[in-house]
Amino acid sequence: VNGLTPFVVAFAAAAVVASDPSGSDAAAAQPSAATIAPFPEPSVATLPNGAVIVSQPSGENPIVDVQTFYPAGLAQQPSGKSGVAAVAAAVVLRTPVERSIDVADIATSLGASVTYTVDPQDTRFSIECRASDLPRLIGDLASAVADPDPGQIAVTRKAAMSAASAAVADPVLVAYSMVRQAQYQGTPYADPDEGRAISLSTLAPADVTGFIGRYRTGHGAAVSLAGDVTSDDIAAAQTAVAGFAAGPPVSSSTPAPSKRGAEVVARRDIPAPWVAVGYSVPDQFSPDFPAMLVIEALLGRGGDVHAFDFGPGFQPPDDFIGGYYQYEAEPGTLIEFYSGANVDQDLHDLSDAVTRLRTSPLSADLLARARQTALGEFLTSVSTLDDRSWLLGRCVLSPAGAALENQIPTDIATVSAAQLMRVANSYLAVQTVAVVLPSNAGQ
Amino acid sequence: MRNRRRGALAALFLTAAVGVTALTASAGPLALAPGESVLNSGLTTLVRQTTGPSSVAIEVWIRCPANGWDASEPGIARLTAFAAVSAKTNGASLRDLVQADGAELSVSVFQTATEIAVLAPANAAGDLQDAVVRSVFGASIDEPAFDDAKSRLAEQQALVAQSTQEIIRETVFASLFSDGPMRDSTYGDPESLKSASLDQVRSFYARSYVPAGTIVVVVGDVDAAATTARLAAISPSAGGPAPMPPSDAANVPAQPVALAPPMADVPGVALAWLGPPIGDRRAATAMDFLSDYLADSDAGAMTLAATGAHAGTSFEGQFVTLQAAGVFFVSATGTGVDAAPMETALRSSLQPVLDQTLSRDVFDRAIAAYETRLLRQMDSPEGLADNYGWYFAQGDPSYAPSATNVDLNGPYFAAAASLTPDYVRQVAQRYLGQTPVVIVVSPNHAPVNVSLRGELK
Questions:
Q1: Cβ pair B269, B400 in contact under 8 A
Q2: HSE-CB of B42 using CA atoms within 13 angstroms
């Protein structure tokens, strides 16, 4: 064992020892609902155009964090225009809004930050600042979205092309990209977040401004605020999205989960092989999501949903080992990454673990431990203001609404062995394997 | 949002993210921050309930010299901390319990303090708090725990040897201090690791991990009264810490300090100065402001100079608040960084704050931005807890920036509010106007025999 994959090994061993065909999980100790400490109830306002404003104040210090979700993300990119979402978001941040100064520089001068992330189903702008500065910054961002500067396209496209070039050389991103391409074939989400060089080179100003125009749709838009939220902040958030169109949300192509696995191989100048094993799994809004989080806990977590987020200054997670669950995509994807001299053994252990999950109900003890691990990982993943406003915004956009925030931990705590088996069988039967080999390696 | 990457490299650089400290013998009772108290055992505690998500930061800060009480055991504090969290009680170590509860564990070792921190889900916070305290005051360190610790430290030593930024950081302190814990690497070296024994670790643990030199900080979604009672109930018996060995300032070394490490990843250059001690709160706060003004990652004057001088430069800079003399240093590293022009660019960008007083308008905006960035670092239980722990370790807990509220009360922000453009310039001249230590790293990679490789295929 290379020291980086103990979870799968431990789980495989535990499953052998603790498998209980009777499935007596009813006796499993469940965390008490009172001790899960649900999130405080937020304030939610839905505007006539469908946009939602949600806030969850807290009073530790005079900082507020705001996430604005615009309903045009990677999955909404037009065919042949991969990378337009990344370029569009960067153009917004570089658009002059106060005389010749862009919103990012204004934020920096205030000690605040404004960044973007291109998500599978939206483009998200994050602002963290003093509560008193938020109306100004959120207004500046709205101005940039309303009137983006096409003159910024050349420089932002160059940055995206540079990121695309770097990604091609990075073994983790190559493996990730190969799994994604196989699993989302035929959809805009199949391509890397930063786009491909060939599509980036053909982007016209109208493509970019047109994509930003798709932000301005009420349904699917949300502004979530956490921290020292004031009434002025909420009013500014409402103003920023009140003028959006009331039409239906931007459509996206959602593929059916692949029924056929794939194996893809690439070669790079690296010292040891990288392997990524991907599964098409439930998204965050699926009823099967909590059970999948428990499975992720059993298989071993490597990074949270934001590990590969693309935004300004993106750096690939070059030492990424373990599980990555991208549940904002529809459907989601679970990828297990391995590298080093023991890859063969790692893959064997993963195969054993998945087989056991699909064929034998967990013992009560192992189930209880897995639920606790999953619950703990979920709760500790929401630690900063940024985490909180992100989760709040995601939940308010779900069919369940803001209540999902507390529903997820509650459901994790009550997942049954039978549910886990069913979910494992539904989602882990087919896998995509991507292998990145050293250039000078044999077959 | 945090990227919870698994792997030694990520853990290492999280560990190295803060800095180091110098402590001398305690001069008497510490002025505590609001909410802090000292139990009968001598253990200092801070429990702060915050609203929001269901996570709790549990941190223990132990004041101890990283190179041993007689400066003869470089790396002993790190080895001991690793062993303590790997030692099993009733079949499970703190590491095991943290993983099982879906929590996060980090061990950070600074020159005169060790931090053991757990970010816990609220529903497991009580048990994990007990486990943390048990590993600090009641661990039975055995051979397996010791072996595990040695493996982890060896891995970290290997990674540090490859990181120019880490090499620079170590060299800054080795150049500014002539002796004491401040001078030596907290990682030790392969030789010291090889010769370390279980008895040494047990001895260091027994002498260092005592309540009177320790603070337990709990911040987050907790019942403050219940948590405090729990701490009081499990606190061990009293024991006094030994005085921290002093670290004397070194004479300015021959310039530059030129290094040619064989495994360092990239070339780099650094400038370093001694600054005011924490006891001079106003000057230390002025240095914090200057650090932000000069070295903020987005807007700092020296940051912009470094990235402007060479595209792709990785710039770091900070003022490290310490009980004795503080340290301000900046570094510019990256492929293709040329030391001489980079040093010139850095010095030139510093000169304006020495030559002229900032205008009132520029100063007011810069102060507001600096305070905002500082507050943003405290937007989580971990951010708040780190602050309390660090300032306890420096011997001035009441000065912790965390000890404030939405109205920015507290000594730290009062000191910030007292700053003026003239005073900031005086402080800049007093400390940054001195000759800095200049460190130049030029990796000396061994050449690869290409023809032989071809023959071996």
A1: no
A2: 15
3 state SS of A84: helix
Give contacts of A37 with chain B, Cβ < 8 Å: 54, 122-123, 221
Contact present, A268 and A438 (Cβ < 8 Å): yes
Tens place of pLDDT per residue across chain A (443 aa)? 232 233 344 444 444 333 333 334 344 445 444 446 568 899 999 999 999 999 999 877 899 999 999 999 999 999 999 999 999 999 999 999 999 999 999 999 999 999 999 999 999 999 999 999 999 999 999 999 999 999 999 999 999 998 888 888 888 888 899 999 999 988 989 999 999 989 999 999 999 999 999 999 999 999 999 999 999 999 999 999 999 999 776 666 555 555 567 778 888 877 788 899 999 999 999 999 999 999 999 998 777 777 777 777 777 666 678 889 999 999 999 999 998 878 889 899 999 999 999 999 999 999 999 999 999 999 999 999 999 999 999 999 999 999 999 999 999 999 999 999 999 999 999 999 999 888 875 54
How many residues are given for chain B? 457
Task: Supply B427's token pair.
Answer: 């402080």
Closest chain B residue to A319 measured between Cα atoms?
A: B7
Task: Enumerate residues 317 to 346 of chain A having a beta carbon within 8 A of any beta carbon in chain B.
Answer: 317-322
Question: What distances in angstroms separate CA B210 from CA B48, B149, B367, one per listed residue?
Answer: 23, 21, 40
The answer for A 98-157 residues in CB contact with B (under 8 A) is: 108-113, 128-130, 133
d(CA B292, CA A55): 31
Distance CA B193, CA B151 (A): 10
Distance, in angstroms, between B422 CA and closest chain A CA? Answer: 21
Tell me the C-alpha distance between B116 and B82, whole Å: 9
Instruction: Kindly report the nearest CA distance between residue B352 and chain A, in angstroms.
Output: 19
Phi, then psi, of A98 in degrees rounded to 5? -120, 100
> What's this model's pTM, rounded to 2 decimal places?
0.90
Q: Where are the alpha helices (DSSP H) in A26-110?
A: 84-94, 103-109
Backbone torsions φ then ψ of B5, nearest 5 degrees = -75, 140
Distances in Å between the Cα of B249 and the Cα atoms of A139, B142, B172, B176, B426 are 51, 38, 12, 6, 22
Place of tokens 């499990």: B234
A272–B contact, CB cutoff 8 A: no
**Burial class of residue A166, CB neighbours in 10 A (0-12, 13-18, 19+):** middle
DSSP character string of A224-252: EEEES--HHHHHHHHHHHHTSB-SPPPP-
Residue to substitute from A61, A173, A373, interface B, most B β-carbons within 10 A: A61
Using an 8 Å CB-CB cutoff, list chain B residues near A38.
Answer: 54
Burial A266-287 (b: 16+ CB within 10 A, else e): bebebebbbbbbbbbbbbbbbe
Both structure tokens of B447: 């050449």
B303 in Cβ contact with B296 (< 8 Å): yes
Q: Which two tokens stand for residue A356?
A: 């056991």
φ, ψ (nearest 5 deg) of residue B37 = -150, 160
ipTM score for this prediction: 0.88
Residue B213: closest CA among B397, B385, B74 = B397
Instruction: Please state, as a whole number, how many other Cβ atoms lie within 10 Å of the Cβ of residue A160.
Output: 29
- A414, burial (CB in 10 Å: exposed 0-12, middle 13-18, buried 19+): middle
